[in-house]
Amino acid sequence: GEMQTDHLENFQKFNMLLGPFPRIPLSGILGKIALLCVL
User: 24 in helix, strand or coil?
Assistant: First the structure.
């Protein structure tokens, strides 16, 4: 539903922000969020 769409939009923004950077854990929390999003 709406939450799913918001998650996709946030994920796209997250990807745009991390796009230029290597896919490595930037920090504990961000690393876990990135792993959860990718998986």
Answer: coil
Which residue shows structure tokens 């994920």?
11
DSSP letter at 21 equals S
Can you give the C-alpha Rg of the chain in angstroms? 11
Range 18-35 average pLDDT? 67
Question: Quick check: 34 and 25 in contact, CB under 8 A?
Answer: yes
Distance CA 28, CA 16 (A): 20
* The model's pTM: 0.33
In whole angstroms, give the CA distance from residue 1 to residue 25: 30
Side chain identity at residue 19, one-letter code: G
How many Å apart are CA 28 and CA 10, to the nearest integer? 19
